[in-house]
Amino acid sequence: MNDKEILRVKNLVVDVKGKNGKRSEIIKNISFELNKGECLGILGESGSGKSMSMKAILGLLDSHFIIRGSAYYKNMDLMLETPEKLRSYRGNDIAVILQNPMTCFDPLFRMEDQMKETWQSHLNLSKRELHEKALSVLRTMQIPNERDVLRKYPHQLSGGMLQRITIGLALSMEPEILIADEPTSSIDAITQFEIMKEFQKIKEKCGTSMIFITHDLSVISQVADRILVMNQGEIVDMGDFKHITTKAQDEYTRHLVRSKMMVMRQYNQVLQKGETL
Amino acid sequence: MKAYIFKRILTTIPLLLCVSFLCFVFINLIPSDPAEVALRVRQTPVITEEAIEEVREELRLNDPYFVRYIRWLGDCLTLDFGVSYTNPSRTVLGEISRCLPATVWLAGASLLFVIILSLPIGFLCAVYQNSWFDKLMRALIFMTTAMPAYWIGLLLIWLVSIQWDLLPTSGSGSIRHMILPAFTVSLTYISTYIRLIRNNMLENMKEDYVLYAKVRGLKQKNILVRHILKNSLHTCIVAIGMSIPQLIAGTIVVENVFAWPGLGKLCIESIFNRDYPVIQIYVLLIGTLFVIFNLLFDIIQYLADPRLRGER
Ligand SMILES: Nc1ncnc2c1ncn2[C@@H]1O[C@H](COP(=O)(O)OP(=O)(O)OP(=O)(O)O)[C@@H](O)[C@H]1O
Ligand SMILES: [Mg+2]
């Protein structure tokens, strides 16, 4: 692991033990590295193993899964760390943003409690400090009426607002690595645009190293410095956006690009038709 | 919020009317003539047509069906449940209120058993899913669901009271008398609730909010107790509302096995004596309890869940 890198995943394999004792490989020997300050995009269709790789690295898979390989973070192999050590990294050193903000929070707790819980798991703060921190996170994310929002339950807030809160929460711990797992795919188009602007802002201002997981080529083009294409648990291509769209080696990648381009063309046609009507 | 509760209370009124009507109809469907039964019970030496007719008049059994129902309902609302056929010097209300406390105690103790056993066991079964503990408990649950309560009661009497001489075999009077019958009543509910809590927790563990909690580095204990268990118990609320009247009704067999002087025993005796007013009120009471507890726990669930409460 050299100075430039913050995370290096090497020969990661995830097997799942089936009901009848059969094993199947979900992740088949993947290796990649994340450089400091870089935004690495992981592109792949549903079921290609994007989320699974993230969970494996964070130690979130239960005993049904057999994990081999290593994931070096700051010269420590995360695969060899104790569960408690891994827990203390999660949310603190490595923050994660998930796909569906509407279901991310416990429906029975107020936002303030759930935000505070995050910090209570890592820091020793007084009640007052926790409250102030919660307010300041909402202010940073430019959420209006922050005092009211803290008192609300998740179902009372919109998806976009909740996703901004999860982003704010993730950044509040000043993580070394930010992993976003399809952060825009369950949000409407307009909010999607706003959320993507947040990610661009993070990239420019905070310089946090980021892994951005998505199946959407156009979303990934907005943030990723380097793209890694996954298919059926394997990495099939790697390179910048231009490389992926024009010079991809892999048949699957080319197919992905082609179908995406087709959708965009159709979309444009519909738009033009709409204008002529 | 108040509107919901008000509406919910209003909807129970037709429900209660249905319960009372069914109660009235079913008892009147029983083939034997209550007038004749009353005469037999009063040990009238010769039962003549005239005597029957007299008693019919006395008990006002000749009025039209619906009139009798309305009159009966009106009486019920003023807590005038009439007198026992078997023993005219006793009122039904007196009989019921004499036996009710014993049954409430028994049901309460059973509920306590259910809570203190199924909560931790269900929790541990979910947390250590497929461990030897979980497997053992599942086997036990399977066995208890296959065994009827009275049989388990008899087994317990034989083992605990006779073989080990630890607890009295039957009767009432002290907490020691209550342990065996209460445990017997609670047994089926314990297995139901272990299963319910275990499965609810396993379902909740798959939810996004659990993944997000883990990803934020919350402590495992917090996630399990504060979030998963709390959410799982939420779905149990309605079930508990149903179980309480079931427990009260379910004492019927066990009370007779353990000679526990409660409603169940009264009911069985009344059935043997064809003491219709008592049976009728017993059935009405249980039916009403179901409706009321259902209402009560619906409201509790409503108040406990911010999504239902519709907070804005
Ligand atoms: N609990 C599990 N047991 C067995 N197989 C699983 C389990 N969870 C996921 N898988 C399999 O692992 C593979 C990868 O799943 P993963 O969730 O990583 O996909 P993904 O790339 O994140 O897709 P998506 O875009 O839908 O999120 C899938 O083929 C899925 O069937
Ligand atoms: Mg995924």
TrEMBL record, chain A:
Coiled-coil stretches noted in the UniProt entry, renumbered to this chain: none
Keywords for the protein's UniProt record, in alphabetical order: ATP-binding, Cell inner membrane, Cell membrane, Membrane, Nucleotide-binding, Translocase, Transport
InterPro entries linked to this entry: AAA+_ATPase (IPR003593), ABC_Ni/Peptide_Import (IPR050388), ABC_transporter-like_ATP-bd (IPR003439), ABC_transporter-like_CS (IPR017871), P-loop_NTPase (IPR027417)
SUPFAM superfamilies listed in its UniProt record: P-loop containing nucleoside triphosphate hydrolases (SSF52540)
Location relative to the cell: Cell membrane
CDD domains: ABC_NikE_OppD_transporters
Protein topology in the membrane: Peripheral membrane protein
GO cellular component: plasma membrane
Residues in ABC transporter domain copies: 7-257
Family of the protein in this entry: Belongs to the ABC transporter superfamily.
Protein name per UniProt: ABC transporter ATP-binding protein
From TrEMBL, chain B:
InterPro entries: BPD_transp_1_N, CntB, MetI-like, MetI-like_sf
Keyword match Repeat: no
Pfam families with a match to the protein in the record: BPD_transp_1, BPD_transp_1_N
Keywords, comma-separated and alphabetical: Cell membrane, Membrane, Transmembrane, Transmembrane helix, Transport
Localization annotation: Cell membrane
Transmembrane segments: 12-30, 104-128, 140-159, 179-197, 236-259, 279-304
GO BP terms, alphabetized: transmembrane transport
Membrane topology: Multi-pass membrane protein
Protein family (similarity comment): Belongs to the binding-protein-dependent transport system permease family.
Name the record gives this protein: ABC transporter permease subunit
Organism: Anaerosacchariphilus polymeriproducens
